[in-house]
């Protein structure tokens, strides 16, 4: 039977955590100490600028970039409760609020100090997104000190457990504050839930005490690091074990679980295999696969991922899949699309793709088949904790969807801009550059001194101009009435070239010189 495991690779300079569900790598997290995320951190910040036209403000929280605060994310005493979430509040997020927020200028002013929490890490060139609706997550509950509300996860199915937990929360919560009960609390005792609440109340009291004695900007509370946070949020009866390759991390995890989740203490184990832990569990290959533009389906079909700044496009192709014997084209296409729907849902989680996503399924003629693909995608996305909204599949096979994004995608974390193409994803062809050189010569010939014209270019471009494009060079020689000497320069980028005049008595550089 496939296992569900949290695998912690902590024996190197970074920490990597993989969540395996039923034998499939579903989520991957990475944290580097020098670039540790800020989601969940609580700051005392200072308002820098108020932008009425955007209903937002920039806030100095002491980080490299100013944080962004929307009017709707500013706590107000007259607010009603937020809408109840259908599950846990994850990674510092808060339930969405109803109603239109007042004008930002009536809520904050430049220079004002404000208590805020990061809900989205800086992404690309944008600063962190923050809120003044603070939420402090524990194992069983999430404490909301600024909102008078009790929420129970809808995944807690029995009325008896819901009533029990609500009574317990009402007995303990301070006036004007609120709690959301997480799904895992269904299996927790009253004592465990109360201990969680007491811990969070003490934590909030400590944050408020520090707020009074420190000037903005200042970090007042740092959320748990990646490893402890993932274990806190995912350790459950359905999870077989947590395994790490680092003894110090193993001992730290054991202490943490014994203190907060003692029933699961025996699920923490130390990896003793000879090969690296991510190799032993087949995770390293999945990481490499998640960075590829093309993903091959088991049937032979393919998915093509093109990730942009604000939009990701996913194209579904039949690839090598020609269908089973006796199947029609429509049946073959539908089978490929069904397989693609499952794989897309898995890849969205693994790659952590967020924002607007367009899926181009293969065109199907029958409306019934389009509905089948839509339902399949909906079902596959139910396992995803990041909220996603999808539109019905169009006659052309297109699905528009949005997926909540709180951190950078796996690609942006693990890769950098290509130094050769400068992030464009392409370079001009050698033929294009050769023709640009010839056009440049024709345009500038009258201003180039000397008896001949020297061209220094990338070796591939130079070879082309001396070979297949030699007739075009000869035609340019006739046009400008000057000799053209072509020299290869090994250090030149394919798009870079130099054109200069050759004066009498001074030879050009030799071919293929450094």
Instruction: Give the total of beta strands.
Output: 24
Number of helices: 12
The first-level CATH class of the largest domain is given as Mainly Beta
CATH level-3 fold name of the largest domain: OB fold (Dihydrolipoamide Acetyltransferase, E2P)
Rg is 30 Å
Structural class: alpha+beta
Residues in helices, as a percent range: 25-40%
Return residue spans where pLDDT drops below 50 for at least 5 consecutive residues. 80-98, 507-511
How many discrete structural domains? 4
How do the strands line up in the largest sheet? 16-17-18-19-21-20
Write a compact overview of the structure shown:
The model is unreliable at 80-98 and 507-511 (pLDDT under 50). Strand 1 and strand 2 form a beta hairpin. 29% of the residues lie in helices and 24% in strands.
Please explain how this structure is put together.
With 514 residues, this protein is an alpha+beta fold. It folds into four domains: 5-34 and 228-283, Nucleotidyltransferase, domain 5; 41-221, Nucleic acid-binding proteins (OB fold (Dihydrolipoamide Acetyltransferase, E2P), Beta Barrel); 292-414, no CATH class; 430-502, 3-Layer(aba) Sandwich (Hypothetical Protein Ychn, Chain: A), CATH 3.40.1260. It is 29% helix and 24% strand. Strands 16-17-18-19-21-20 form a six-stranded mixed sheet, with helices on one face. Helix 1 (159-172) packs parallel to helix 2 (190-213), helix 7 runs parallel beside helix 8 and helix 10 packs across helix 11 (459-466). The model is unreliable at 80-98 and 507-511 (pLDDT under 50).
């Amino acid at each position: 039977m496939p296992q569900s495991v949290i695998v912690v690779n902590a024996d190197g300079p970074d920490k990597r955590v993989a969540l395996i569900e039923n034998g499939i790598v579903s989520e991957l997290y990475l944290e580097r100490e020098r670039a540790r995320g800020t989601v969940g951190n609580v700051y005392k910040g200072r308002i820098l600028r108020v932008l009425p036209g955007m209903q937002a403000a920039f806030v100095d929280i002491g980080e490299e970039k100013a944080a962004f605060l929307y009017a709707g994310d500013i706590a107000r005493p007259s607010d009603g409760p937020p809408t109840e979430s259908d599950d846990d509040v994850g990674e510092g997020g808060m339930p969405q609020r109803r109603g239109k927020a007042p004008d930002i200028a009536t809520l904050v002013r430049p220079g004002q100090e404000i208590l805020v929490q990061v809900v989205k890490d800086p992404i690309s060139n944008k600063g962190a997104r923050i809120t003044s609706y603070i939420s402090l997550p524990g194992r069983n509950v999430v404490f909301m000190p600024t909102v008078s509300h009790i929420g129970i996860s809808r995944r807690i199915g029995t009325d008896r457990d819901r009533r029990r937990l609500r009574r317990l929360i009402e007995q303990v919560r301070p006036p004007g504050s609120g709690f959301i009960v997480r799904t895992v609390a269904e299996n927790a005792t009253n004592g465990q839930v109360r201990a969680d609440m007491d811990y969070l109340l003490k934590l909030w009291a400590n944050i408020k005490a520090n707020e009074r004695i420190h000037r903005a900007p200042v970090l007042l509370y740092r959320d748990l690091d990646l490893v402890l946070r993932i274990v806190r949020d995912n350790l459950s009866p359905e999870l077989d074990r947590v395994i790490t390759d680092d003894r110090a991390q193993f001992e730290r995890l054991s202490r943490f679980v014994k203190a907060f989740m003692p029933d699961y203490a025996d699920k923490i184990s130390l990896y003793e295999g000879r090969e690296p832990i991510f190799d032993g569990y087949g995770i390293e290959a999945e990481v490499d696969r998640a960075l590829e533009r093309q993903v091959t389906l088991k049937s032979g079909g393919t998915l093509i991922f093109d990730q942009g700044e604000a939009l990701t496009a996913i194209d579904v192709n039949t690839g090598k899949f020609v269908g089973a014997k006796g199947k029609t084209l429509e049946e073959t296409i539908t089978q490929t699309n069904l397989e693609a729907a499952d794989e897309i849902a898995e890849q969205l989680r693994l790659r952590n793709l967020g924002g607007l996503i367009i899926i181009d399924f293969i065109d199907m003629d029958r409306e019934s088949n389009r509905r089948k693909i839509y339902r399949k995608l909906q079902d596959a996305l139910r396992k995803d904790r990041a909220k996603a909204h999808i539109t019905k599949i169009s006659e052309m096979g297109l699905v528009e969807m949005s997926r909540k994004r709180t951190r950078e995608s796996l690609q942006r974390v693990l890769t950098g801009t290509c130094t050769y193409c400068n992030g464009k994803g392409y370079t001009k062809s050698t033929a294009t550059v050769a023709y640009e050189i010839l056009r440049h010569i024709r345009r500038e010939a009258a201003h180039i001194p000397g008896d001949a014209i020297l061209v220094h270019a990338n070796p591939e471009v130079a070879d082309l101009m001396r070979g297949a494009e030699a007739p075009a060079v000869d035609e340019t020689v006739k046009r400008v009435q000057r000799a053209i000497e072509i020299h290869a320069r090994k250090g030149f980028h394919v798009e870079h070239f130099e054109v200069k005049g050759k004066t009498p008595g001074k030879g050009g550089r030799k071919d293929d010189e450094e």
